[in-house]
């Protein structure tokens, strides 16, 4: 995997306005040559956690090894900061994972049912992007990844499964792919409240890229307005040379 250069990052920012979050994440990984199997479609078979680990690595290569941001405290509504090493957000590989084993499988019995399934993949998330509501998306996702059968072999639809069975399935899926559901422990500096916040690398990367892109475009605007240079010419300048030119614009 390689870091994304400036033109590719700006292209990623452009594309992100017209792609779903999951489609955008896959585009990023393909742009970074993260898939070494020779087929871009192989990424669709990656468990979500594997995709997110790759995105964490790509983000570290591109913007640095620290992950920082602000979160509103649910008790006092003041801002609390988190600042962690990206490596600290990488969950160790699940048992048995390797380059060839892209799907994690489960099989267990509960309440008279045999449940078989696999971890959610990047392709599964892509498939539910077109669903109009969360209920429909959740149902389609469950049908994609999990099957439950009575002892006579009759399949039970995900929508008909009792709550205890659904809860057990969710727990097993989290065990299969813990990287897919990351949480950061927060502590409010003002009221000492502690809580956990879900960390989604796709959303975080997108927001960080947006802030970076706006800075790049402001630089282009300022320099083009004075010197008449094209966007490509300005973006090709080294960061040090660009800063020098920008400082010269300040009275």
User: Uncertain runs with pLDDT below 50, 5 residues or more?
Assistant: 94-103
Helix content range: 40-55%
Total number of beta strands: 8
Name the shape in a single word: elongated
How confident overall, as mean pLDDT?
Answer: 88
Rg, rounded, reads 22 Å
Helix-strand topology string: HHHEEEEHHEEHEEHHH
Strand order of the largest sheet: 3-4-5-6
| Number of H/I helices | 9
Class by SSE composition: alpha+beta
Chain oligomer state: single chain
3D architecture notes:
The chain is of the alpha+beta class and 251 residues long. It has 2 domains: 6-92 and 182-248, no CATH class; 105-176, no CATH class. It contains 9 helices and 8 strands. It has a 4-stranded antiparallel β-sheet with strand order 3-4-5-6. A two-stranded antiparallel sheet has the order 1-2. A hairpin with a 6-residue loop joins β7 and β8. α2 (21-31) packs across α3. The longest helix is centred in the last third of the chain and has 27 residues, at 201-227. The protein starts with 5 loop residues before the first helix and ends with a helix. Residues 94-103 have low confidence and may be disordered.
Mind sketching the topology for me?
Blueprint: H1 6-16, H2 21-31, H3 48-63, E1 66-72, E2 79-85, E3 105-110, E4 113-118, H4 122-128, H5 134-145, E5 146-149, E6 155-156, H6 163-176, E7 182-187, E8 194-199, H7 201-227, H8 231-235, H9 239-248
Antiparallel strand pairs: 1-2, 3-4, 4-5, 5-6, 7-8
Helix pairs in contact: 1-2, 1-7, 2-3, 4-5
Key structural traits:
about 250 residues; alpha+beta; 2 domains; 4-stranded antiparallel beta sheet; 9 helices
């Amino acid at each position: 995997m390689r870091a994304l250069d400036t033109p590719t990052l700006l292209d990623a920012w452009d594309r992100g306005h017209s792609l779903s979050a999951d489609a955008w994440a896959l585009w990023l990984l393909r742009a970074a040559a993260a898939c070494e199997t020779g087929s871009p479609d192989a990424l669709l078979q990656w468990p979500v956690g594997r995709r997110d680990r790759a995105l964490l690595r790509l983000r570290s290569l591109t913007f640095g090894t620290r992950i920082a941001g602000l979160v509103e405290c649910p008790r006092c509504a003041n801002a609390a900061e988190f600042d962690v090493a990206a490596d600290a957000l990488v969950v160790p590989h699940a048992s048995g994972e390797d380059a060839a084993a892209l799907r994690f499988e489960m099989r267990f019995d509960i309440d008279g049912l045999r449940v078989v399934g696999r971890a959610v993949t990047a392709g599964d998330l892509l498939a539910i992007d077109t669903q109009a509501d969360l209920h429909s998306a959740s149902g389609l996702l469950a049908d994609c990844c999990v099957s439950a059968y009575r002892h006579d072999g009759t399949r039970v639809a995900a929508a008909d499964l009792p709550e205890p069975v659904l809860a057990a399935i969710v727990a097993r899926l989290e065990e299969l792919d813990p990287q897919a559901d990351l949480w950061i422990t927060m502590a409010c500096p003002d009221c000492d409240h502690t809580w956990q916040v879900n960390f989604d690398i796709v959303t975080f990367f997108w927001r960080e890229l947006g802030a970076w892109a706006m800075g790049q475009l402001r630089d282009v605007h300022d320099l083009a307005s004075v010197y008449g240079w094209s966007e490509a010419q300005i973006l090709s300048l080294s960061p040090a040379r660009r800063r020098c030119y920008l400082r010269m614009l300040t009275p």
